[in-house]
Amino acid sequence: MISPMQVTPEVSSGPEAILMLVLYFILVMAIGVYFFKKSRESTGDFWIAGGNIPLYVQVFAYFAVTASAGSFFGFGGFAYAFGAAFSTMVVVAVCAGGLMMMITIAAPMRRSGVYTVPDYLKKRYQSTTVRLVAGIIFAVASWAYLVPQLTAAGITMEFVLPSLGYELGILVSVVIFALYVSLGGMWAVTWTDFIQGIMMFILTLLPLPIIFADMGVGGTLSGAMANDPTFAGNSAPYLMVLGIGFTWILAFLGLPQFGQRALASADAKTARRGFMWMNLLYISAFVLSAFFVAGAAMALEPNLATADHFYYAVLVEYTGPIVQGLGAAGLLAAVMSSTDALLVALSASVSHDIPESLDVGLTEQQETRLGTLVIWVGAFAAAYFAISPPGIIGIMTTIIAGGAASGLFPALAIGTWWKRANAPGAIASMLVGGGSYVVLFLGGYMPVEQSEVLVTVPLGVITFVAVTLATRRPTGEELQGFIQFHQTGDTPTKVVTDDD
Q1: For the chain, how many structural domains are there in total?
Q2: Where, by residue number, does the polypeptide cross the bilayer (predicted)?
């Protein structure tokens, strides 16, 4: 319930703004239809585009899946709610996570020749139990991360089409997202993400010249600080700062969309360099957004009903319906770029990793059909919870990232490089790290929100090392995956299919 003092940006539902949105939806649907036949050639094509995505495409696809609603909405919302310095810290932490992904597992993962991260872990540890546990964590994280993305979709649809409303806006978005992903698989996801990444980068910075022309660089910050003296700094508790920063440094190594995207790279070099170039785009776009777009929103309207409306407040003040429609399309691009990759990761875990781990034999055609069904069921289930979201978008994405990192960081990041690591250690770390995060978060035992990872990640690492050292060394056969992951050179590894 919004109090009388709180403000929600409002625009007229003009035909120009609606046209921009409709054209955007037609574009992504056309891409899904175009890649329908190609995505059905194999499960590898459906889930990782055959591992053939070149660097120039991957850079913007990485940017799109990294930015998502959590950055476009959430991190600017962090600046509006907690200060620009806090938001900048989160942006830097995300870039540090991209570097960690680039350095630690992007290349080994691509060399593995598989098309899901749980399958990568199975190959590393030669254990179907490892794959099963990881597949369940990936499925839960993929589905949960859909909720804040669809929350952002509802906000955007309501912004352009206020007569449609938030709830119906979510349902319309879900149908469009699920349709083009189920039609074109990762091929459609990749090329829509490429386009969306370019759109998001441009539209993140689009308000800046208009803001500077009206307020000036210094005037924007002084105007924001006149309404909130702490805007340029940080008003969040320091334990929360540490927790959120730590979470996003490790998030790339746990969230499903990043591993799935790396596996689609043409080779190991592309997987690594894509993250490097993405970081340059990301930090330049979102540091400027945190200080100046969120700053302009604070200067113009310090009483927004939710911090996630900061971008809309600026669009309403300075632009007409065409630019507002383009801005809404860019914001939907931020939503869709993660939602589509998450739907693919969810589909792969439920229809490929979990059945194979349980020795349920499915043909490639059956896996693809089951995967398509999972996309639709998962999307509508997430939409149900997004109708009454549990918090602002940046907080929701951080919570899920913390859980994924707690469960998967030791087995993925440390296990990729520690030759002594074994399956019992990996299983124990996933159960202890992920389980302790759920207990601490649901029980509310930490003194400050979003600080759970400061306990659960170290606990998972300690468990991983202790159980590994207390159990037998891996055999030569069990180390075959480890050896393959670290072969020198960047010759593309053949993507494994069920027919091989």
Answers
A1: 1
A2: 17-36, 56-80, 86-107, 128-148, 168-189, 201-226, 238-259, 280-300, 370-387, 393-414, 426-447, 453-471
3-class state of residue 282 by DSSP: helix
DSSP 487: -
pTM over 0.85: no
Judge whether 44 and 495 are in contact, CB under 8 Å.
Answer: yes
Could you tell me if residue 10 is inside a domain?
A: no
Asked if 256 and 404 touch (Cβ cutoff 8 Å), the reply is: yes
Beta strand segments in 367-466, E: none
* Residue 489 counted as domain residue: no
* CATH number of the domain to which 375 belongs: 1.20.1730.10
> Token digits for 495?
């993507």
pLDDT in tens, 101-153: 888 888 888 888 887 888 889 989 999 999 999 989 888 888 888 888 788 78
Within its chain, how far is the Cα of 321 from the centroid? Answer: 29
Token pair 């990568």: residue: 120
Rounded Cα gap, residues 86 and 78, in angstroms: 7
- Measure the CA–CA gap between 205 and 413, rounded to whole angstroms: 34
